[in-house]
Amino acid sequence: MDNVSVFFLAEGEQPADEVMARLTTFIRAAKQTLDFAVYDMRFSDPLKASLSSALRERSEAGVKIRFCYDGDKPSPPNVAAGQDPAPSGTGAFVQSLGYPWRRIAGMKLMHSKFILRDGQTVWTGSANMTDDAFTLMENNVVEIDSQALANYYVEDFEQLWEKQNFENTGKIHTQPVPVSFAGQPAEVRVMFSPGCGLEIDLEIARRVRAAQRRVRICSLLINSGTLIGELGNLLRAGRVAVDGIYDRTQMAQVYLQWQEVPQNRWKISALKDIIARAGLAGKNSMPYTPTGRHDYMHNKILLIDDTVITGSYNFSRSAQFNSENILFIESALLAETYSSYIDHLKQKYKIVGEALH
């Protein structure tokens, strides 16, 4: 039976070299191929040395290594056009490693974060490949050993590699795949944008609408109008518990953007109402600057009853048009594991929030 494992990151709770040790362990198990799809990859010298050593060892053993990375966007980025800010330097870092690479162009973002090992095992989730992602941000990383699931990632990676542009990629019709988590049967489905971006937005909304017991949010941003609408309906109906945590500072930046676009202004009061009714905890992070401290609550998790939804996909309209991957994992046990993590973060940042008032 195929297997799923997960680990969680939170600011100040794990040293960078511990996370890098997990990554190099994953890399060192490769026998034939390692394919990396990265959005932001820039490590300090000690972490780069660990990564380089693991890659070199595999390369010398005959493993073929390839990197696809987001084409460095102009500075400053056109945020209104969906060119989210990311520090420059990923291209230079990837190229310095010395393996075949493709710069993936496109109007929006090649925002996927996954590693494909031997076309069989996937490392994915919300974490970018940076020191800050490993130590200052809240992230979750999922490893799935499943040929059937990995086949879909192979297809997406090959599309990116061949086209060197993510537009018109990701239209991959996927099915749920049986896996196991902690010895219990589970099921996982992956979907990719931009090809299935609209379908993903509608699928998330459908699942929120169908919730029976709980909807728990653990997300950097909540800016899909579809999701905001469904959460509002759920809270007004009052039959399902809704709670969670988001990044208060980064969301405040989004409110400023919405204020500038008349058809988005309704979202401001609608989301503020959801935050108040659901009592969402908010992490106060540093406002974005290219060289500042990047300490965001960076997860993209929705927990609906016994389903975990996670990946690189922010719950935003932009995500529909980016290159992203998102998992829908059905597992009561995994849902409880994520639920405990959300409890921990809510408690941590609720206390911080209270201290500030």
Summary?
By secondary structure, this protein is α/β, with parallel strands linked by helices. It is 39% helix and 26% strand.
Protein model, in words:
The chain has 357 residues and is of the alpha/beta class. It has a single domain, classed as Endonuclease Chain A (Endonuclease, Chain A, 2-Layer Sandwich), CATH 3.30.870.10. 39% of the residues lie in helices and 26% in strands. It has 11 helices and 17 strands. It has helices spanning 16-28, 45-60, 90-97, 131-135, 147-163, 197-209, 225-237, 248-259, 266-278, 317-321, 332-356; strands at 3-9, 33-38, 41-42, 64-70, 101-104, 114-117, 121-125, 129-130, 139-145, 177-181, 184-193, 214-219, 241-247, 281-283, 300-304, 307-311, 324-330. The protein has a 15-stranded mixed beta sheet with strand order 5-4-2-6-7-9-1-10-11-17-16-15-12-13-14, with helices on both faces. A two-stranded parallel sheet has the order 3-8. α3 (90-97) links the parallel β4 and β5. α1 packs parallel to α2, α6 packs parallel to α7 (225-237) and α7 crosses α9. The protein is globular and about 60 Å long. The protein starts with a strand and ends with a helix. The mean pLDDT is 93.
